[in-house]
Specification:
The protein contains 6 helices and 11 strands. It has about 190 residues and is α+β, with helices and mostly antiparallel strands. It has one domain: YbiA-like (Tetracycline Repressor, domain 2, Orthogonal Bundle). Strands 1-7-6 form a 3-stranded antiparallel β-sheet, with no helix packed on it. The chain has a two-stranded parallel sheet with strand order 2-5. Strands 3-4 form a two-stranded antiparallel ribbon. It starts with a strand and ends with a strand. The relative contact order is 0.19.
């Protein structure tokens, strides 16, 4: 069974670059540093990448101190053998958590973007990644678009709940996240 989606290029809230209308949905948007259990992290990309390495706080520090979101992704390349064994099983959950934290820390900003996007599909355009995003093929964007679908779920949460006073996120049991040598059953800010 395929999870590939097909979206017309027109009529979607798409993002490819961070300086575009919907670019703030990107993990590469550097104007949204996160506060996680008292630690400042430069971007959602840095948080996501760092959580791949629960037993390597040295790598996590290297990632979160990288100069930009793209650099936090690039510095991971030499450490592929240190990625947690269950990463492919939990990566979507971790991304949902990271995006939710980003949204909750910047609700007013993202609520305005949600209002502009209305009910249009949110699609990350990627030239190489059909899992997190979708590739342009003629008049369509084709891919699983997992990141875009996560943002659509967050938008649905906003539509149903409005702005909320939430200052913590409970990590699902069994995920066992560690960040800079501390277990993360709860993320607070």
């Amino acid at each position: 069974m395929s999870n590939i989606r097909k979206y017309p290029v027109e009529g979607v809230a798409s993002f490819y670059r961070t300086d575009e209308l919907y670019g703030d949905f990107s993990n590469m948007a550097r104007q949204f540093p996160l506060l996680v259990n008292g630690k400042r992290i430069g971007s959602s990309e840095a948080l996501y990448q760092s959580l791949k390495y629960p037993s390597r706080p040295d790598i996590q520090r290297f990632i979160i101190h990288a100069g930009s979101p793209i650099e936090s992704k690039r510095v991971c390349a030499p450490f592929g053998s240190d990625v947690r064994e269950d990463w492919l099983d939990i990566r979507v959950y971790v991304m949902k958590m990271v995006v939710s934290i980003k949204y909750l820390q910047y609700q007013k900003h993202f609520s305005r973007i949600f209002e502009i996007s209305g009910d249009m599909p949110i699609v990350e355009i990627s030239s190489f990644d059909q899992f997190w995003g979708a590739q342009k093929r003629g008049e369509y964007l084709v891919g699983e678009n997992v990141l875009g679908r996560i943002w659509m779920g967050v938008r649905e949460f906003y539509w149903n709940n409005g702005l909320v006073n939430q200052r913590e996120f409970k990590v699902r049991e069994g995920i066992n996240l560690f960040f800079i040598e501390e277990s993360m059953p709860l993320v607070s800010w």
